[in-house]
Automatic annotation (TrEMBL):
Name the UniProt record assigns to this protein: Activator 1 subunit 5
Alphabetical GO biological process terms: DNA repair; DNA-templated DNA replication
Organism whose genome encodes this protein: Strigamia maritima (European centipede)
Keywords: ATP-binding, DNA replication, Nucleotide-binding, Nucleus
Keyword ATP-binding set for record: yes
């Protein structure tokens, strides 16, 4: 791996440390065991990988391709199309069909067509693809990769063996992150590592991108620097906002929150997400917690529709002020 990192100095870390073989992959052992058995028996079916971003879908199929084909045969045996390529009905009928229909003369086995981000393909292209898959099964295998299974037509789903790649656990991500930190000699604190893993939320790609950008921006990667680098509210900021909403009058709290939002460039959506976690941790009576969560869900829905942030902030603040009044009334 040391030699590998020397050869790939200028690459982003997500590419530099992309797993080369199936054994390098850090998660989904049950899926990998099944696929290894398919390869060993030479009976690889059409595959459909789905799940959130950064969970190893593309890395898995590329590792499979490298295991199946020698470097000299790779280009002629693997066709990889991404969302950046045109994958309308014309490409399915021409490029994919011409690749799938040509046989390998001096080599037994099958070709591999990888369609990354297949959920971005049009319905017409997907319908055209189902006939191509059936027609050339003898000498070609297809692997479809997507984030949302519901965007793949049922006819394609039924032709493939489906594998769901779930978000990675902290136990799976930590060793890989620690390895990159060690090789790249990143000066990082324990709370910095924890912040990266929290923000990544099971996305290995995101964790490496945050680590790289934070290490380039700051001499020491700690919790505050990580949150600042990705534009996420600091825990201290959220604590202040909660205190203002629960203890200060409406005008003071509103002006203070507007000020901190402007100074630090915070989005109300991010503030709302963090406050939601706090609400679960604060010892509110269940009736109060339900009231707050209901109001926050409404505000989040309105924010996603593109409404005015200041009006929604006032609404959030109002919900907390009403909560405070209810608690005060019950205490007397």
């Amino acid at each position: 791996m040391e030699q590998q990192s020397g050869n790939k100095t200028n690459l982003p870390w997500v590419e530099k440390y992309r797993p080369e073989t199936l054994d390098d992959l850090i998660s989904h052992e049950d899926i990998l065991d099944t696929i290894k058995r398919f390869i060993k028996e030479g009976r690889l079916p059409h595959l459909l990988f789905y799940g959130p971003p950064g969970t190893g879908k593309t890395s898995t199929i590329l590792a499979i391709a490298k295991q199946l084909y020698k470097p000299k045969d790779y280009t002629s045996s693997v066709l990889e199309l991404n969302a950046s390529d045109d994958r309308g009905i014309g490409v399915v009928r021409q490029e994919i069909m011409s690749f799938a229909s040509t046989r390998t003369i001096f080599r037994s086995g099958f070709k591999l067509v990888i369609l990354d981000e297949a959920d971005a393909m049009t319905k017409d292209a997907q319908n055209a693809l189902r006939r191509v898959i059936e027609k050339f099964t003898e000498n070609t295998r297809f692997c479809l990769i997507c984030n949302y299974l519901s965007k793949i037509i049922p006819a394609l789903q039924s032709r493939c063996t489906r594998f769901r790649f779930g978000p990675l656990t902290l136990d799976q991500m930590c060793p890989r992150l620690d390895y990159v930190i060690q090789v790249e000699k990143v000066n990082i604190t324990e709370d910095g590592t924890k912040a990266i893993l929290t923000l990544a939320n099971g996305d290995m790609r995101k964790s490496l991108n945050i680590l790289q950008s934070s290490s380039m921006a700051y001499d020491e990667v700690n919790e505050d620097n990580v949150y600042t680098c990705v534009g996420h509210p600091l825990k201290s900021d959220i604590t202040n906002i909660i205190n203002w909403m629960l203890n200060d009058d409406f005008s003071t709290a509103f002006n203070n929150i507007i000020k901190i939002k402007t100074e630090k460039g915070l989005a109300l959506q991010d503030i709302l997400t963090e406050i939601h976690l706090y609400v679960h941790r604060i010892d509110f009576p269940s009736k109060i917690r339900i009231h707050l969560l209901d109001k926050m869900a409404e505000i989040e829905h309105r924010l996603s529709s593109g409404t005015n942030e200041n009006i929604q902030l006032a609404s959030l603040l109002g919900a907390f002020q009403v909560t405070r009044d209810i608690i005060a009334a019950e205490a007397t």
